[in-house]
Design brief:
five-stranded mixed β-sheet, single chain, Cobalt-precorrin-4 Transmethylase, domain 1, Methyltransferase, Cobalt-precorrin-4 Transmethylase, Domain 2, 12 helices, 3 domains, alpha/beta
C-alpha cells in the first residue's frame, strides 16, 4: 500500500477535525499530507473562501468550503459537531499559516475535543517559527500575537517585552511597524531586534540589528506586506543596551558634552535611571582623561 492510499484509508476510518496549516506566502510550501487531508475532507472550514480557492485551484482540489472567520466561529460549532456525528471528516484552515495561532479556530478545537471527537493537527508553515529561526536569537521565546493599537496599551506591551527574559515574537501591521519600533527604540535603542516582512514571498526581507538602527532603516522605506517582529530577551538585551550606552557616552564625552547632559539624554532614551548613567559617565570621563 502506497503512502497516499494509506493516508486515504486512515482518513476514511475516522470522523475528526483536521487542523491544516497552509502556506504563508509561497504556495509550494504546502505539505503532501496537507494536500491529502484537504483532498479527502468532506468539509473545509476557512477564513476566506476566496483565499482557500486559490490554493485549491493550484493543486486541483475541489471540496465544499464553508466560511469560519473570527466573527462566525461560535455559530459554526454546532454545525461542525453535527457533521462529525454524521461521520464527516472536517478540515480547518486559515488564510495563511497554522489555524488558531492569531487566527480563528481555538474555540472550535476545544468544543470538538470536549464532545469526544479527535482533533488531528498537522505540522506546517508558521510565520512565528520562520521569523524566529531567521533572527539568529536563541530561545526560549514567547509569542504575543498582534501588537495593540492604543498608545497606553502599546506602551505597556513594549515595556513587558523589554522586561522579559524570554525573547518575544509578535505581529504588526506594515503601516504601524515604524511607530511601534519607535516606542521600543526610545526605551532601549540597543536592544537586538529582527523584523521580517513578506516571509517566503518574492520580496522577502529581514532587517536585524540594534533597535535604533532597524528603526532608521525602516524610516527610509515604505513597509509593505505582513510583518513579524522578534525582540531579544532582556537577559541578552541588557548587555546589548549597556554596550550601546557605553559607546554613545564615550562619543559625547569626547565631544565635550557636560556629564549631566549626557546622563539626561541617555536616561531618557534608554529608561535607565539617570544616577546610574551619571556614575558610569563620570567613570568614562576619568578613563578618557587618564
Amino acid at each position: 500500500m502506497g503512502l497516499k492510499e494509506e493516508c486515504r484509508e486512515i482518513l476514511s476510518a475516522h470522523a475528526a477535525l483536521y487542523v491544516v496549516p497552509t502556506p504563508i506566502g509561497n504556495l509550494r510550501d504546502v505539505t503532501l499530507r496537507a494536500l491529502d487531508v484537504l483532498g479527502q475532507a468532506d468539509l473545509v472550514l476557512c477564513e476566506d473562501t476566496r483565499r482557500t480557492r486559490k490554493l485549491f485551484a493550484r493543486y486541483g482540489i475541489s471540496r465544499p468550503l464553508v466560511s469560519c472567520e473570527r466573527f462566525s466561529e461560535a455559530r459554526r460549532i454546532d454545525y461542525v459537531l453535527s457533521r462529525l456525528e454524521e461521520g464527516s471528516r472536517v478540515a480547518l484552515v486559515s488564510d495563511a499559516g497554522t489555524p488558531t495561532v492569531s487566527d480563528p479556530g481555538s474555540r472550535l478545537v476545544r468544543q470538538v475535543r470536549n464532545a469526544g471527537f479527535p482533533v488531528v493537527v498537522l505540522p506546517g508553515p508558521s510565520a512565528v517559527v520562520t521569523a524566529f529561526a531567521a533572527s539568529g536569537i536563541e530561545g526560549p521565546f514567547r509569542f504575543m500575537g498582534f501588537a495593540p493599537r492604543k498608545k497606553a496599551e502599546l506602551d505597556a506591551f513594549i515595556a513587558g517585552i523589554l522586561s522579559s527574559i524570554e525573547s518575544t515574537v509578535f505581529y504588526e501591521s506594515p503601516r504601524r511597524t515604524a511607530a511601534t519600533l519607535g516606542v521600543l527604540a526610545a526605551r532601549d535603542p540597543g536592544r537586538y531586534v529582527c523584523v521580517g516582512r513578506e516571509i517566503t514571498k518574492i520580496h522577502e526581507e529581514y532587517i536585524a540589528g540594534c533597535a535604533i538602527h532597524v528603526l532608521q532603516r525602516l524610516s527610509r522605506v515604505e513597509v509593505k506586506g505582513e510583518v513579524t517582529v522578534v525582540v531579544e530577551g532582556s537577559s541578552h538585551g541588557q548587555a546589548s543596551t549597556s554596550k550601546s550606552v557605553d559607546t554613545a557616552a564615550r562619543r559625547l564625552v569626547r565631544l565635550g558634552v557636560p556629564v549631566r547632559e549626557v546622563s539626561a539624554v541617555l536616561s531618557e532614551l534608554t529608561g535607565i535611571p539617570r544616577n546610574d548613567i551619571y556614575r558610569a559617565v563620570l567613570a568614562i570621563r576619568a578613563e578618557e582623561r587618564s
